[in-house]
């Protein structure tokens, strides 16, 4: 479904942020992209969503295809219309608008019927948003704002949903809820590319993952296998929860079924 092949990107022609990165998100899968601060994760997203020039960056090599179409030859609006939708880092919701108005904005490009059906689906996935549908976005908690950001992206009817660090700044129990929601969305047929620093969370959701280090893919494979590698254990799982085993156990306790849906 999404194929990134040998992509290199520079900022200002000086700093090479990506060096020949290749990754694939097969249809129906959930794939994680892991890496520490500055590894290049956001730059990968920018390359996919054709958002490089706004940040002074440019693709110097490689190509990105979505559903067999070269994204370099496709306009941004067509990319979204084809079902490639991103939840940006930092949950950029429209704070002055209500929950429902935020969702309406997300479904703006769709017909009334499709948008209404999508809204009901979002409220089904996020009962908390349904309860708060008339509340202003800025009055929501951090976790609820993240749910709204995901809900708004779902309104566009994505075939592939790309999430940029959805766990950032959230309490562990809320991270567990976000993980459950991503599992549910994927189980219902939407492919997912999950960008995360929180490897424990990402590997508990994704079936496979890529690890970026200094702009290069240093490791990739099935999540279960990667969890056993020293790179992941030492660099990421340990990092997010103190001692490796303690962090993993603590995390596992937060991944309880939410909205009645457990791991797929
Ligand atoms: P983080 O988790 O901190 O967002 P990241 O893995 O997403 O990190 P990127 O933001 O993609 O990493 O950054 C990769 C490299 O590109 C870093 O060296 C970073 O300093 C550089 N970089 C990112 N954005 C810009 C920019 N707008 N201008 C110049 N350099 C940038």
Describe the structure in your own words.
- With 264 residues, the chain is α/β, with parallel strands linked by helices.
- It has two domains: 1-83 and 158-264, Rossmann fold; 94-154, no CATH class.
- Helices cover 40% and strands 25% of the residues.
- The protein is built from eleven helices and ten strands.
- A six-stranded mixed β-sheet has the order 6-7-8-3-9-10, with helices on both faces. A four-stranded antiparallel β-sheet has the order 2-1-4-5, with helices on one face.
- Helix 3 (99-106) packs parallel to helix 6 (142-154) and helix 10 (230-241) packs across helix 11 (244-254).
- The longest helix has 16 residues, at 172-187.
- The radius of gyration is 18 Å and the shape is globular.
- The model is unreliable at 239-264 (pLDDT under 50).
- Adenosine-5'-triphosphate (ATP) binds at residues 11, 15, 17, 35, 37-43, 55-56, 197.
Give me some keywords for this one.
single chain; 264 residues; alpha/beta; Rossmann fold; 2 domains; six-stranded mixed beta sheet; 11 helices; 10 strands; disordered C terminus; binds adenosine-5'-triphosphate
- Total count of helical runs of at least 4 residues: 11
Order of helices and strands: EEEHEEHEHHHHEHEHEEHHH
How many distinct domains? Answer: 2
Cα gyration radius (Å): 18 Å
If strands are numbered along the chain, what order do they take across the biggest sheet? 6-7-8-3-9-10
Task: Give the fraction of residues assigned to helices.
Answer: 25-40%
Q: Which ions, cofactors or small ligands are bound in this entry?
A: adenosine-5'-triphosphate
CATH-derived topology of the largest domain: Rossmann fold
**Shape estimate:** globular
Poorly predicted residue ranges: 239-264
CATH second-level architecture of the largest domain: 3-Layer(aba) Sandwich
CATH class of the largest domain equals Alpha Beta
């Amino acid at each position: 479904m999404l194929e990134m092949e040998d992509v290199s990107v520079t900022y200002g022609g000086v700093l090479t942020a990506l060096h020949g990165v290749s990754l694939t998100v097969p249809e129906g899968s959930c794939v994680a992209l892991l890496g520490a601060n500055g590894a290049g994760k956001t730059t990968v997203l920018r390359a996919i969503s054709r958002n490089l020039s706004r940040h002074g960056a440019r693709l110097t090599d490689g190509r990105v295809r979505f559903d067999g179409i070269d994204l370099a030859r496709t306009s941004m609006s067509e990319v979204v219309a084809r079902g490639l939708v991103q939840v940006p880092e930092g949950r950029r919701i429209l704070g002055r608008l209500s929950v429902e108005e935020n969702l309406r904005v997300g479904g703006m490009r769709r017909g009334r019927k499709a948008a209404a059906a999508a809204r009901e689906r979002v409220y089904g996935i996020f009962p908390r948003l349904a309860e708060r549908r008339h509340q202003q976005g800025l009055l929501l908690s951090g976790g609820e704002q993240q749910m709204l950001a995901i809900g708004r992206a779902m309104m566009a009817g994505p075939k592939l949903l790309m999430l940029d660090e959805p766990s950032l700044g959230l309490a562990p129990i809320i991270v567990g809820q976000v993980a459950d929601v991503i599992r549910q969305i994927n189980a219902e047929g939407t492919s997912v590319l999950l960008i995360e620093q929180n490897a424990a969370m990402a590997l508990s959701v994704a079936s496979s993952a890529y690890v970026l280090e200094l702009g290069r893919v240093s490791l990739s494979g099935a999540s279960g296998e990667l969890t056993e590698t020293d790179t992941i254990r030492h660099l990421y799982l340990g990092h997010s929860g103190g001692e490796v085993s303690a962090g993993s156990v603590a995390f596992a306790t937060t991944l309880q079924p939410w909205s009645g849906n457990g791991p797929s």
